[in-house]
């Protein structure tokens, strides 16, 4: 059993095959070749310590099943998450529609959750501009409208991947300093149970 | 045809699942086919009966004792003295008697030993019955009880040494103390687990000196306080426990300046201790409809028995032995969750189960599994396992686990996935399995089974079933059955061999006995026993020097 303490929960949302898992894989294995996460057989949950200034923030990165089949259950996944990375495929406009759906869900249900829009497979777009289906500036506008951060990444080249998660960690660190006095930072006992604790799977 | 196929799978009749009392709820094999409510009633009644029987036995034994030995137990000590005296006389007899009486001696010692064993056994029997009633029968004469108690201590000590574990288990002390006793097996386990948890907790706190004492005091006070709050709803109970966690960890932080790691470690132990203690009163409390939900889920999973691994798009190939091995382990783990008392232990079971699933997927696909692979696999495992009291367990973990655990960590991730799996199973419809509505309805109503669609090379049942079983993708249960049959048949062969040799031995013994008898007979015939007439027993015949003695006195007659 992993005894690693996790500071916050980051959910990965996005349509099937947009590359959520690859993104996490790229990020985790690129930076740290040795560490406790190496023991995880699956890539579904990863605990990743990140240096933010002098502090270390451990992100618990939750991969989620993107299939539409499980759409009704996604609410259970992002419950209590402080950050959500909503992924879409830069070469697939339908995936962006799905991303919009999750953004709406998050705005409705998790107001404390920060949203990070993440276009994936940027390497394909770099190689051939014609395959791009999602305009960078449109997305930028959308991101500003919903108060989200926007990244375009490539898991293949590692482009922008570290930046994305670094930003997630930094934002979390800042929010902790705002919300809770420093002495208690990082202890999740600080977040007292909310109503969602009681509505596990019978209530949605 | 369709009717025939329907019967192929393991078919359980609806009526067999219901409570035997006919109350309409579902029964459980662990409760002898009764539902939990009926079982509770039944168990109480049986217990009452047991107590009465024990009393009757105790009284009967008392009467027997009075009738048989003339001396009632009030003269117990006296009787013991008698025994001692008898022993002394036996020993005296032994020393005084000639060697020819050897065998008799051991006999008498045995007879001496025997009543004392019998006596011990009898009093032990009474003791057992009294342990049951937890009180001395008031009808017993006071002296008896006193003597008995004294003896009880001694005997108990002796017998405890021998039967320690089973005795502990058999002692229903916990029952009478905690009042509420849902089932014998649980209460048995409970007393041991509670003791162990307390011991471990104390052991842990010892290393902390002053804060340790403080923590222990607070926990005790909290548990005592909770005893008075049994009537509260589940949510309020949860609130109490969570507040306690919160306050205690805050206090540890600020008061004892613990690092967050050490506080977390302490809180883990606190949770273990408190929840082991409170488990009985807060798990699936009667104030909630958890039990109803358990039954609904169980029913639902049973109704979905036809869902195949392909429909769920699970990336596990159960044909690979290693994979099916891990599948079985995962199923065992998720079922085992119900047997744990502490939320974090339950979570550990879920995590263990998930790890096995990941291994299974990894073996099948040769790459680390993502959530897209994992969730369907977990759903499949839950469908196969149909874990007992699933909803109750989930609710219990949600209510009483340290929130940081379920919210962020790895355990939390797998727990969330389990919740998702359950939610999926509850909502599952034709669309989520990529089936047409008609197909789904047909499967649900049991009119047909997707495992053996018509004309799929599955010959009708008449005669060719074994071939089909060998060739077609077998139900893993059947495969397991076949696999189990092999060692079983091996066992039966070995048993046959054993029987044969035992019979041989028996014959040998018989012939040996006969041989010995014949030999003895031979010897007896060769040297027949002749009884010589006893030598004329004259006084002084054996005295060699009798001639040296002066002549015997002869009576002389004196005149006058």
UniProtKB/TrEMBL annotation, chain A:
Molecular function terms, GO-annotated: G protein activity; GTP binding; metal ion binding
Keyword S-adenosyl-L-methionine: no
Organism superkingdom: Eukaryota
The organism's taxonomic lineage, starting at the top: Eukaryota, Metazoa, Chordata, Craniata, Vertebrata
Reaction catalyzed: GTP + H2O = GDP + phosphate + H(+)
The protein's name in its UniProt record: Ras-related protein Rab-24
Complex formation: Interacts with ZFYVE20. Does not interact with the GDP dissociation inhibitors ARHGDIA and ARHGDIB.
Cellular compartments annotated: Cytoplasm, Cytoskeleton, Spindle; Cytoplasm, Cytosol; Cytoplasm, Perinuclear region; Cytoplasmic vesicle, Autophagosome membrane
Matches recorded under Pfam families: Ras (PF00071)
Membrane topology: Lipid-anchor
Cofactor: Mg(2+)
Annotated GO biological process: autophagy; protein transport
UniProtKB keywords: Autophagy, Cytoplasm, Cytoplasmic vesicle, Cytoskeleton, GTP-binding, Hydrolase, Lipoprotein, Magnesium, Membrane, Metal-binding, Nucleotide-binding, Phosphoprotein, Prenylation, Protein transport, Transport
Keyword DNA damage: no
Entry GO terms, CC: autophagosome membrane; cytoplasmic vesicle; cytosol; perinuclear region of cytoplasm; spindle
Chief site of localization: cytoplasm
EC numbers, comma separated: 3.6.5.2
PANTHER family, sorted: PTHR47978
Family classification: Belongs to the small GTPase superfamily. Rab family.
Enzyme class per UniProt: hydrolase
Described purpose of this protein according to its UniProt entry: The small GTPases Rab are key regulators of intracellular membrane trafficking, from the formation of transport vesicles to their fusion with membranes. Rabs cycle between an inactive GDP-bound form and an active GTP-bound form that is able to recruit to membranes different sets of downstream effectors directly responsible for vesicle formation, movement, tethering and fusion. RAB24 is an atypical RAB protein that presents low GTPase activity and thereby exists predominantly in the GTP-bound active state. RAB24 is required for the clearance of late autophagic vacuoles under basal conditions.
Automatic annotation (TrEMBL), chain B:
Residue stretches making up the A20-type domain: 13-47
Name of a matching Pfam family: zf-A20
SMART domains attached to this UniProt entry: VPS9, ZnF_A20
Keywords for the protein's UniProt record, in alphabetical order: Metal-binding, Zinc, Zinc-finger
InterPro entries registered for this protein in UniProt: DUF5601, VPS9, Vps9-like, VPS9_dom_sf, Znf_A20
Transmembrane segments: none
Domain VPS9: 291-434
Region (Disordered): 164-193, 444-470, 528-560
GO MF term set: DNA binding; guanyl-nucleotide exchange factor activity; small GTPase binding; zinc ion binding
Gene Ontology biological-process annotations: vesicle-mediated transport
Cellular component annotations (GO), alphabetically ordered: cytosol; endocytic vesicle
Coiled coil: none
Compositional bias annotation for Polar residues: 179-192
Protein name in UniProt: Rab5 GDP/GTP exchange factor
């Amino acid at each position: 059993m992993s005894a690693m303490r996790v500071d916050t929960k980051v959910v990965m949302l996005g349509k099937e095959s947009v590359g959520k898992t690859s993104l996490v894989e790229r990020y985790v294995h690129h930076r740290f070749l040795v560490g406790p996460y190496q023991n995880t057989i699956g890539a579904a949950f990863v605990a990743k310590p990140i240096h933010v200034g002098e502090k270390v923030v451990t992100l618990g990165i939750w991969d989620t099943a993107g299939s539409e089949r499980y759409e009704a259950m996604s609410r259970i996944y992002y419950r209590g998450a402080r950050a959500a990375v909503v992924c879409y495929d830069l070469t697939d406009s339908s995936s962006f529609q799905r991303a919009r759906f999750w953004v709406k869900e998050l705005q409705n249900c998790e107001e404390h959750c920060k949203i990070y829009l993440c276009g994936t497979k940027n390497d394909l777009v770099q190689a051939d501009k014609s395959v791009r289906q999602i305009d960078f500036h449109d997305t930028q506008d959308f991101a500003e409208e919903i108060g989200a951060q926007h990244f375009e990444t490539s898991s293949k080249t590692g482009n922008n991947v570290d930046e994305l998660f670094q930003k997630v960690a930094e934002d979390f660190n800042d929010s902790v300093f705002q919300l809770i006095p420093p002495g208690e930072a990082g202890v999740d006992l600080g977040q007292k149970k909310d109503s969602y604790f009681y509505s596990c799977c019978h209530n949605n | 045809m369709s009717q025939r196929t329907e019967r192929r799978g393991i078919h359980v009749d609806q009526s067999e699942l219901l409570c035997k009392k006919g109350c309409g709820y579902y029964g459980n094999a662990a409760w002898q086919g009764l539902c939990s409510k009926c079982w509770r009633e039944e168990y109480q009644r049986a217990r009452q009966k047991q107590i009465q029987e024990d009393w009757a036995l105790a009284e009967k034994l008392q009467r027997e004792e009075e009738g048989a030995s003339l001396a009632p137990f009030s003269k117990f000590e006296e009787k013991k003295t008698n025994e001692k005296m008898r022993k002394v006389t036996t020993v005296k007899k032994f020393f005084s008697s000639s060697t020819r009486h050897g065998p008799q001696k051991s006999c008498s010692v045995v007879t001496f030993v025997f009543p004392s064993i019998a006596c011990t056994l009898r009093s032990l029997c009474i003791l057992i019955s009294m342990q049951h009633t937890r009180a001395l029968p008031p009808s017993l004469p006071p002296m008896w009880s006193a003597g008995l108690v004294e003896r009880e201590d001694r005997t108990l000590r002796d017998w405890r040494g021998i039967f320690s574990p089973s005795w502990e288990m058999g002692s229903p002390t916990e029952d009478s103390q905690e009042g509420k006793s849902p089932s014998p097996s649980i209460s048995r386990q409970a007393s041991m687990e509670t003791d162990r948890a307390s011991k471990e907790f104390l052991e842990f706190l010892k290393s902390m000196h002053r804060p340790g004492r403080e923590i222990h005091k607070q926990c005790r006070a909290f548990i005592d306080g909770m005893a008075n709050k049994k009537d509260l709803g589940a949510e309020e109970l949860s609130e109490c426990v969570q507040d306690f966690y919160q306050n205690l960890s805050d206090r540890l932080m600020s008061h004892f300046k613990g690092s967050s790691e050490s506080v977390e470690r302490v809180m883990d132990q606190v949770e273990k201790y408190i929840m082991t203690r409170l488990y009985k009163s807060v798990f699936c409390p009667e104030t909630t409809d958890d039990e109803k939900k358990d039954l609904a889920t169980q029913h639902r999973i049973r109704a979905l028995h036809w869902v195949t691994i392909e429909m769920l798009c699970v990336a596990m190939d159960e044909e690979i032995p290693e994979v099916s091995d891990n599948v079985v382990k995962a199923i065992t783990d998720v079922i085992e969750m119900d047997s744990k008392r502490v939320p974090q232990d339950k979570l550990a079971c879920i995590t263990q189960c998930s790890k096995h699933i990941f291994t299974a997927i990894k073996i099948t696909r040769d790459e680390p599994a993502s959530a897209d692979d994992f969730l369907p696999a977990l759903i499949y495992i839950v469908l196969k396992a149909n874990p007992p009291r699933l909803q109750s367990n989930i609710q219990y973990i949600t209510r009483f686990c340290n929130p940081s655990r379920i919210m962020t960590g790895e355990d939390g991730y797998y727990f969330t996935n389990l919740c998702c799996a359950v939610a999926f199973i509850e909502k599952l419809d034709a669309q989520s399995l990529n089936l047409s509505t008609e197909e789904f309805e047909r499967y649900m109503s049991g009119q047909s089974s997707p495992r053996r669609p018509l004309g799929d090379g599955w010959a009708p049942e008449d005669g060719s079933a074994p071939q089909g079983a060998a060739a077609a993708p077998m139900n893993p249960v059947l495969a397991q059955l076949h696999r189990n049959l092999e060692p079983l048949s091996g066992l039966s062969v070995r048993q046959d061999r054993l029987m044969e040799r035992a019979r041989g031995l028996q014959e040998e013994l018989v012939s040996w006995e006969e041989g010995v008898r014949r030999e003895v007979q031979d010897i007896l015939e060769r040297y027949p026993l002749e009884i010589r007439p006893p030598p004329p027993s004259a006084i002084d015949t054996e005295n060699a020097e009798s001639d040296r003695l002066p002549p015997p006195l002869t009576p002389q007659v004196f005149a006058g």
